[in-house]
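FAQ: What does the model actually see?

It sees only this:
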Amino acid sequence: MIPRLHDVPGVLGEICRRRLAEVSARPYRLSPDPSQPIPSFSQALALPGLSLIAEVKRKSPSQGDIAPLDAAVVARSYEQGGARAISVLTEAHYFAGSEEDLRAVRQAVRLPLLRKDFTVHPSQIPEARALGASAVLLIVAALGELTGAYLELVRESGLEALVEIHDERELDIALEAGASILGINNRDLVSLKVNMDTAPRLGELARSRGFEGLLVAESGYSRPEELRPLAGRFDAVLVGTSLARSGDWQKAIEALMAADSQRRI
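And it is asked to produce this:
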């Protein structure tokens, strides 16, 4: 159940191999509490209009340092601003996240949480549930043909998965695996370049191939006008850098989602 990460090129491969070494070196001690209720990630994304997944993000390989955030404080502002779910980065070296951030956010808000990390070992899945996540990220570019097996582990753990793709080959793998929440990343995870046409194009292709699940657009969104091509085609958008940098996180969300609110009125 360990993906062949030596085949994964670029920064993505570097991060995934380091993450696997870290996870493999430490014993798994966290046990999920099956009685602990977790809010539904999919139900939040399926609400009318375009749902916002707001991300707690301090740095990234493409942007460098973004903002020195207090995860719980930012999460509460995101919730007050109207975010429907929160993405919490838990990778330390490239994104300055931590498991403690996820715990803190879980205690601070009632929204469903996405554990945003590089899932490359089966133990990370029940661990995410124990930390309070509703969903985990599965990156097809890293997991390849093991995507379906990891998706099954996610479901057995009582979680949901955002299955992330950024090209047609990965779309085929995700559909074959049975993904029900499909994240389409405008950023090429190898070159780190952003193409804002990627999500609309692959979203339309997914629908033409019979995908009836939830579509999430990712990367590069910072202004209301950039969300217009997603209207009526996507269920949600994930936004990180522009919100984290804003300094007034509640106001930034309200401004970003104003156009969608007006359309629904």
